[in-house]
Design brief:
By secondary structure, the chain is an all-alpha fold. It has helices at 17-35, 42-66, 77-91, 96-102, 104-114, 120-124, 133-156, 160-187, 211-236, 244-251, 261-275, 279-298, 307-333, 339-343, 345-358, 369-372, 391-424, 432-446, 456-472, 490-512. It has a domain at 78-92 and 128-134 and 158-343 and 366-481. Helix 1 (17-35) packs across helix 19, helix 9 (211-236) runs antiparallel to helix 11 (261-275) and helix 15 (345-358) packs across helix 17 (391-424).
Amino acid sequence: MRQYEPILDNTRPVLSRFDAAIEMMVIGLLAFMPLAFGVVHAWSEEVVVVLSGAVVVCFLLRIVFFGGPGIVWSWSYIPLTLFVLMVVFQLVPLPADVVGLISPNTAALKTELLGDLPNPDRALEPMTLSFYPHATAHDLRLVLAVAGVFVVVLNVFRRKDQIKRLLMAITIIGGVVAVITLAQNIFGNGKIYWFVPTRYGGAHSGPFVNHSNYGQFMNLSIGAAFGLLCVKLHETFAGRRSTPAGIIEFLTSRAAKTLWLLPLMMGLCVAAVFVSLTRGGMVSLLAAMGFTTLLLTSRRSLRSHGWIMAVMALIAFTCILYVGFDAVYDRLATLRDLDEAESGRMQILKDIWVVWTKFPVFGTGLGTHLVVYPMFDSSTITALAAHAENEYAQAAEETGLVGLGLLVIFGIIVWLNYARNVRKSNSSIHLATYGLGFGILAILVHSLSDFGQHLPANSVLSATLCALLLVLGRRKDNTRHEYAGNTRRVCVVVPACILLVGSLAVWAWAIVG
């Protein structure tokens, strides 16, 4: 398929029906996931797989029937594709001798565990690298869903108005979730939506079951809102200083119909993070806020935007005082107690190090932590054993150096685009980079002590923000793409048809399997 330099399209052609459908489905998916408890049940996972597959199919149908610039090239495709192929390789049945060469401890441990079964040769031949293929296949379905949304956002949301609509949608979704959270804390009865009981007997994190996972979602939403606010302020105050007095004067005018909602939404989201009592969410929020504030103040043209952080903090502090300052203070005070971390999370990391040394290259199989880790568990907190409570450690455990290395390469590509956007900032839309980077940095810090990216509500939103960063990082090019004639040539349509057939096959497997 012909590949184009992925440039930001500043033209305003009429959206095709497929583009409009894709935009609505992506926004619908982003709205559904947090309201469905973050997608922790099988039925909601199935909805995510169906919707993400439909988004990919619509995107390929658009190329086949409407032409367009085709699939734009991005270096991020390489680590993403290789990661998916690596997980597929973990599921491929191989001769036991081959597994013994690739991962000797995998073959030895499986032989030890299954050697006493009747007909052990039948149970051991062939053999997969994954210790639990069903769990690996389950997680592969979700990885494909996240990757599909990432690719579609990278290719479809190429215009300023599309990017701003998507950021506004994410902001509204985050604001709604924050309002639900605050309402449940003030008027709640300890149940999600006032009728769904929780395992821990409280509903401090809105529709999410786990308050730490909730913190990641809210920080990503804050990043989207902050990015959109930077864009709006630049468009409104281009050529003059955006001082607090000037901002207040503008916000009281009729021209500011929607802009005033953004600082309010951000403040509510920040308050919701603190009210949910997630220590990781609070720390990562403060880390991202400090980094972004320093970056803004280092740019002379953007120093006047630093007041946004102060306004956001003021709104959040007011909400916290009303809802419950003492609980937030007591929760933050527990950061001084390292005994629990040393005997719990830190011990889990030490145990995972032992696991990794035995399966260093390809790991134990994506999604197998729950069944492999108990064999090496020496921690005292059994409730944490379901996840590593550290995304990086769990990725190394389940996918080895290969998988973790590919994820690191993907992250480097994203942050290189972030740096490129920060350097140029040649248009208002590029200022959204600061907000997108805010959200991504927050979840990277939080992932040191949480497994929130295992929830599709968080991973899909993270992929969306990463895709938007890559869209904004496209090099400027004045070349105009021909939408009507050349893009309907065989070199574009035929590969698109092949991808469409392949996507339908994978989609069917993901739904049925």
